[in-house]
TrEMBL record:
<dbReference type="GO" id="GO:0000166">
    <property type="term" value="F:nucleotide binding"/>
</dbReference>
<dbReference type="Pfam" id="PF01408">
    <property type="entry name" value="GFO_IDH_MocA"/>
</dbReference>
<feature type="domain" description="Gfo/Idh/MocA-like oxidoreductase N-terminal">
    <location>
        <begin position="2"/>
        <end position="123"/>
    </location>
</feature>
<dbReference type="Pfam" id="PF22725">
    <property type="entry name" value="GFO_IDH_MocA_C3"/>
</dbReference>
<feature type="domain" description="GFO/IDH/MocA-like oxidoreductase">
    <location>
        <begin position="142"/>
        <end position="251"/>
    </location>
</feature>
<dbReference type="InterPro" id="IPR055170">
    <property type="entry name" value="GFO_IDH_MocA-like_dom"/>
</dbReference>
<protein>
    <submittedName>
        <fullName>Gfo/Idh/MocA family oxidoreductase</fullName>
    </submittedName>
</protein>
<dbReference type="InterPro" id="IPR036291">
    <property type="entry name" value="NAD(P)-bd_dom_sf"/>
</dbReference>
<dbReference type="InterPro" id="IPR000683">
    <property type="entry name" value="Gfo/Idh/MocA-like_OxRdtase_N"/>
</dbReference>
């Protein structure tokens, strides 16, 4: 059984813990928060599902604990790199929420620290592990040579009204390495890289907020013979599916982040629903994937390559759009 610790006590941590427990491979062994009281309150929710976890309010004490195998990090983006490297130097494997780091330089440092300490560093990008995303990827050859692709994820942030009211939520604060391309846009970019690999060219534009981060934007990834357009926003909603067009047909996927529905239409034929049933918790599949890689003591090198490439392109997108973080 994998002894799991978590840093961060928010809704996404709850979702990952649920997925980890459902998988049958993990036990919640520790909770780390900024105060012992908040760690205690968070851990109490799992009292009936797991033995009492150890509580921490000190990161170094967690890193040095011999009761932990893996640390899941779901703190603000700006803290991912420093916290992950601290845990890995303490001999802990790390599952780090996306995005892995604020920029490419920090992402490279993180993997270097993982290698130096003989531990695994895993970016928690759930989309690519869902069964319906795998179907989408497996069907690419069926629609023939790719002509064009459009990947969209636009969702009005629950924090945006607070920002408009004059508050400064983390979501729209450059000090926390946040903004649309680092959050919701990550799913679009990382999905494109998983499907099509490294582009030949990147062109980006964005609508910047007064805080200095992007509220929305678009990116064109150019490949040999086709281009992929990414559309992302935290200031508006969209009901459009993502679409991949080939010379012989079309593939569509709803909610690229979780692979909600996949359909195919070959030229001259009707629409075919390829959707399979998935767990209500889309993070289950990444929890299973990490458990398998830990059992093999080796992270899939293609996953590491993708994480580094996404960090590189995110950094380039921010350079083009003028979004600057303190970590830069």
């Amino acid at each position: 059984m994998i002894k799991l610790a978590v840093i961060g006590t928010n809704w996404i941590t709850d979702q990952f813990i649920e997925a980890a427990l459902i998988s049958g491979h993990y036990q919640l062994s520790a909770v780390c928060s900024r105060s012992m009281e908040s760690a205690k309150q968070f851990a109490e929710k799992y009292a009936k599902l797991t033995p009492q976890p150890i509580l921490f309010d000190d990161l170094q004490a967690l890193a040095e604990s011999d009761q932990i195998d893996v640390v899941y990090i779901a703190s603000p983006n700006s803290l991912h790199a420093t916290q992950a490297m601290q845990m890995m130097r303490g001999g802990k494997h790390v599952i780090c929420e996306k995005p892995l780091a604020a920029n490419e330089t920090l992402a490279k440092q993180m993997f270097a620290v993982a290698d130096e300490n003989g531990v695994l560093l895993y970016e928690a990008f759930m989309s690519m592990h869902t069964p319906n995303f795998k179907i989408l990827k497996a069907q690419l050859d069926e629609i023939g040579p790719i002509s064009k692709a459009f990947i969209s994820y636009c969702q009005y942030s629950s924090r945006y009204p607070k920002y408009l009211a004059g508050e400064n939520p983390n979501t729209f604060n450059p000090a926390f390495a946040n903004g649309s391309i680092m959050d919701i846009g990550f799913y679009c970019l990382s999905s494109a890289i998983e499907l099509f690999g490294e582009p030949n060219n990147v062109q980006a534009q964005a609508q910047l907020l007064a805080s200095g981060v992007d509220g929305s934007g678009s990116v064109i990834l150019s490949y040999q013979g086709f281009e992929v357009v990414l559309q992302h926003s935290k200031t508006s909603d969209s009901a459009l599916p993502s679409e991949i067009q080939g010379e012989n047909g079309i593939l569509q996927i709803e909610m690229i982040s979780i692979g909600q529905k996949v359909t195919k239409k070959l030229r001259g034929q009707g629409w075919e629903d390829l959707t399979v049933e998935q767990s209500h918790n889309p993070m289950l599949y990444e929890a299973l994937d990490f458990a398998e890689q830990l059992a093999n003591n080796r992270v899939n090198p293609s996953a590491t390559e993708r994480s580094l490439l996404v960090a590189k392109i995110q950094t380039e997108i921010r350079r083009q759009t003028g979004v600057v973080f303190p970590q830069d």
